[in-house]
């Protein structure tokens, strides 16, 4: 469902051309669990941003569900993000003044979903992620694990087919990190494609497909039997 | 995104930074309140002057001797002539015009008034019965000058309320004798206290028949002739007739000035309206300043909320929606600001009305509308740039908080 063909991305830093991604070719199917590993500066975050349509490739073609999304305009790309892609960030990125409930509701609100439909969906998510009694707390009143659970609930509120997680455990201790990963992995069982960026080999090796990146290129692609 | 959600989201982010929001609302509301209060004062002054004028009488045409030449020196002056005086017969002749309803000749001078040991300087008006009617004066006790022959120089007088009080204390002076200069006068009436009107205090005057005043001051000229037209529509005709009659009587010499009260009133009206506009305009500048303040603070808000904007983009908000959110925030701010400003302004007007009850202060509707439009307008105008810069942020760098 995700197809990357000869994708390159270069930045101009000062008067120098820096290539972040070189000629990436990648196919990811529905329900796949993919981890992207590599040292910092290897281009893994850039790849994730490209897949998430937050960035545009310098050259190459990107297709989602067979449709070319490279040439879509800003508004069309926003719609694809809204309907098909969920993000989970290392630093959670919750809106500080909004309650957990309203943070989860945000994508539904932006998409213009009707109020009663929205309410039902948010209550369901709060229950699924064990946040019901924390629903009216603001992010600064929540623990790190709770915050990331809110972020995951938010990312899944529009039932996206792809979930992109950039170091989702980076700001968490080991136990809560493990819990968060379990939650994300459960989603793959519901046919959600999970793409996880991490520099932690232990975490990355849990994925069925493991991508290793160096200098903007995929150097190895391991298929795990797990 | 639904409209109600946009408004709620914008309101929530305004509540999120309370101090900033309150300060901006304060700035906006001071601007609006300033416009409302200052224009209300200007309008109050205008109405005050108009009221004062109409208390002088209605449908008036004023005649005074001499002519204000604006085209250099008149021929009469070269020959060493002084303008011919207005005589009592001139005044009586004006009644020949159909457009003229009533006339009151007026002679003015100052004299010593005395009773027993008390004496003081007073302004003496020489006139006729019609003065009472034309000038809307009101009589407290006794009678006003009788309506008989204007040439009769009876030694009778009507006292202003304050003069009566000074000479007779709390008693009425009606029927008693006083002296004006070296002549004895019998008091036949006392005016009610009306206070000052156009810088002329009717409480401190003495009114005598015009012929008596001529004898008292040893003149035969008139200071003014007050002419009351029969109706509003005949004012211009009355003015023309007065000019024709007087020119004919003065051998074709244009040596009198005839003005309608309306013309004087219109001039004042224009001046004070311009003043109100100017003051309102100055206040509107503070509104524009408030608008720039809003722009500034919104720009800061955009830079403070870069990560949030990046997030909204990642969650699928197109640029137009983000622009809309910031735009709505600014409009809400200026809307609430102008509402608070209106309340403050009207409260200020009420306070002024309480302190100066004689001043009919009220903000004109056009000033209120203009204040609201300008504040909303500046709010909208100055939020365009911040909203655009928010919408243009690159999501990747925005999420990184750079």
Describe the fold and architecture:
The complex is a heterodimer of chains A (226) and B (402). Chain A is of the alpha/beta class and 226 residues long. Chain A is built from 7 helices and 10 strands. Chain A has a 6-stranded mixed sheet with strand order 6-7-8-3-9-10, with helices on both faces. A 4-stranded antiparallel sheet of chain A has the order 2-1-4-5, covered by helices on one side. The longest helix of chain A is centred in the last third of the chain and has 16 residues, at 174-189. The radius of gyration of chain A is 18 Å and the shape is globular. In chain A, 46% of the residues are buried. Chain B is an alpha+beta fold and 402 residues long. Chain B has 2 domains: 3-53 and 266-399, no CATH class; 103-229, no CATH class. In chain B, a hairpin with a 2-residue loop joins β2 and β3. The longest helix of chain B is centred in the last third of the chain and has 44 residues, at 261-304. The mean pLDDT of chain B is 86. At the A-B interface, α2 and α3 of A face α1, α10, α11 and α13 of B.
Brief characterization of the structure:
The complex is a heterodimer of chains A (226) and B (402). Chain A has 226 residues and is an alpha/beta fold.
Q: Please, how many helices of chain A? A: 7
Order of helices and strands of chain A: EEEHEEHEHHHEHEHEE
> Largest beta sheet of chain B, briefly?
6 strands, mixed, barrel
Number of domains of chain A: 1
CATH H-level name of chain A... which superfamily? Answer: P-loop containing nucleotide triphosphate hydrolases
How far is the first residue's CA from the last residue's CA of chain B?
27 Å
Main pleated-sheet profile of chain A: 6 strands, mixed
Number of separate strands of chain A: 10
Q: What fraction of residues of chain B sit in β-strands? A: 15-25%
Q: Tally of extended strands of chain B?
A: 12
Number of domain modules of chain B: 2
Side-by-side strand order of the widest sheet of chain A: 6-7-8-3-9-10
Mean pLDDT of chain A: 91
Could you tell me the radius of gyration of chain A in angstroms? Answer: 18 Å
Q: Given the helix and strand composition of chain B, which structural class is it?
A: alpha+beta
In which order are the strands of the major sheet of chain B placed? 2-3-10-5-7-6
The third-level CATH topology of chain A is Rossmann fold
Please report the two chains with the greatest interface, counting residues with C-beta closer than 8 angstroms to the partner's C-beta: A-B, 29 and 25 residues
Count of DSSP-assigned helices of chain B: 13
């Amino acid at each position: 469902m995700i197809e990357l063909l000869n994708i390159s991305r270069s930045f101009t830093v000062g008067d120098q051309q820096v290539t972040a991604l070189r000629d990436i070719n990648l196919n990811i199917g529905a329900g796949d669990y993919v981890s992207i590993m590599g040292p910092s500066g290897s281009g893994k975050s850039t790849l994730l941003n490209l897949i998430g349509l937050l960035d545009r490739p310098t050259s190459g073609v990107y297709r989602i569900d067979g449709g070319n999304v490279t040439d879509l305009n800003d508004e069309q790309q926003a719609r694809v993000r809204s309907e098909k892609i969920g993000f989970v960030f290392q630093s959670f990125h919750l809106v500080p003044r909004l309650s957990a409930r309203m943070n989860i509701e945000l994508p539904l609100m932006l998409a213009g979903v009707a109020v009663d439909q929205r309410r039902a969906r948010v209550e369901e998510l709060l229950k699924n992620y064990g946040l019901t009694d924390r629903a009216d707390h603001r992010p600064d009143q929540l623990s790190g694990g709770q915050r990331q659970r809110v972020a995951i609930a938010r990312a899944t509120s529009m039932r996206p087919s792809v979930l992109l997680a950039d170091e989702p455990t980076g700001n968490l201790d080991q136990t809560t990190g493990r819990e968060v990963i379990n939650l994300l992995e459960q989603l793959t069982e519901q046919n959600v494609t999970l793409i996880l960026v991490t520099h932690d080999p232990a975490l990355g090796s849990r994925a069925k497909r493991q991508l290793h990146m160096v200098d903007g290129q995929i150097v190895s692609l391991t298929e795990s039997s797990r | 995104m639904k409209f109600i959600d946009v408004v709620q989201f914008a309101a929530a982010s305004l509540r999120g930074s309370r101090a900033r929001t309150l300060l901006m609302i304060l700035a906006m509301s001071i601007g609006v309140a300033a416009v409302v209060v200052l224009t209300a004062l200007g309008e109050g002054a205008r109405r005050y002057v108009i009221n004062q004028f109409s208390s002088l009488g209605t449908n008036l045409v004023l005649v005074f001797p001499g002519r204000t030449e604006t085209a250099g020196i008149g021929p009469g002056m070269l020959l060493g002539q002084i303008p011919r005086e207005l005589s009592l017969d001139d005044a009586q002749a004006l009644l020949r015009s159909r457009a003229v309803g009533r006339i009151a000749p007026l002679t003015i001078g100052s004299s010593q008034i005395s009773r027993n040991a008390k004496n003081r300087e007073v302004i003496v008006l020489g006139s006729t019965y019609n003065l009472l009617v034309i000038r809307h004066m009101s009589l407290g006790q006794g009678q006003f000058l009788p309506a008989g022959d204007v040439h009769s120089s009876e030694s009778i007088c009507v006292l202003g309320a304050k003069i009566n009080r000074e000479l007779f204390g709390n008693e009425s002076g009606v029927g008693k004798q006083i002296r004006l200069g070296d002549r004895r006068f019998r008091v036949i009436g006392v005016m009610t206290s009306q206070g000052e009107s156009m810088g002329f205090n009717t409480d401190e005057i003495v009114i005598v028949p015009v012929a008596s005043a001529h004898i008292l001051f040893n003149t035969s000229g008139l200071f003014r002739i007050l002419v009351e037209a029969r109706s509003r529509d005949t004012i211009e005709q009355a003015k023309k007739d007065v000019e024709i009659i007087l020119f004919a009587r003065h051998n074709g010499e244009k040596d009198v000035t005839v003005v309608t009260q309306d013309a004087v009133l219109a001039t004042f009206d224009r001046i004070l309206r311009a003043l109100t506009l100017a003051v309102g305009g100055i206040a509107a500048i503070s509104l524009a300043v408030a608008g720039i303040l809003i722009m500034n603070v919104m720009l800061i808000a955009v830079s403070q909320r870069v990560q949030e904007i990046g997030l909204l983009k990642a969650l699928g908000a197109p640029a137009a929606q983000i622009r809309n959110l910031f735009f709505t925030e600014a409009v809400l701010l200026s809307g609430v600001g102008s509402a608070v400003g209106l309340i403050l302004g009207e409260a200020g007007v009420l306070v002024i009305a309480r302190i100066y009850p004689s001043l009919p202060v009220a903000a004109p509707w056009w000033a209120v509308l203009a204040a609201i439009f300008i504040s909303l307008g500046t709010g909208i105008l100055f939020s365009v740039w911040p909203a655009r810069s928010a919408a243009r942020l690159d999501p990747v760098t925005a999420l990184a908080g750079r």
